[in-house]
Amino acid sequence: LANASLDDPESGLDAATVEHIQNPPQHQLSLDDDPDLKAAVKLYLKLSHAGKDYEAACEVLMESKDVDDFPTLYQAKRAVEQLSGISGIMHDMCFNSCIGFTGQFVHLESCPICSSLCYDQVILTQSKGKKKVARKHKTKGELLLSVNLLHTGTICSKKCERFTYMFMLALSRILTCLAAAIC
User: Fold this and answer.
1) What is the pLDDT of residue 142?
2) 169 assigned to some structural domain
């Protein structure tokens, strides 16, 4: 833990997310000036299977509005991350959900518990071992709270202020208990 770093490739954080954590916005974030992005964010948040459902819903919206362009799923996700301070990190999983291929397991190609292969063998074979596509993924929501975020004046930061206080209080109690157990 002492050697943990945002720049660690095994953290699952892309460069944009690391930049957002290290330099949070200093202004109020809003979608009011972009009604299409606002609609895209609402659509993304309401869909349970966002990937496929979002694309299908976008097709219907573009046909009904007679437009050729609508924010992509990536753009909607990034807007949600920027507004909320919560970022989803995708991790490869054992097909049988035994483990996540993260941390000490990040370099494994099969599950140490059930021996299930991590990567889709058809794609791996077709690409001659160059394209590794996991058979199963799990998105882990990472809370990227920053003291600076509380001072930007966003709706989210106002709603998150009490949560942040409670989170910090709980973290303080956990650290106190750990210190008492260790010392």
Assistant:
1) 47
2) yes
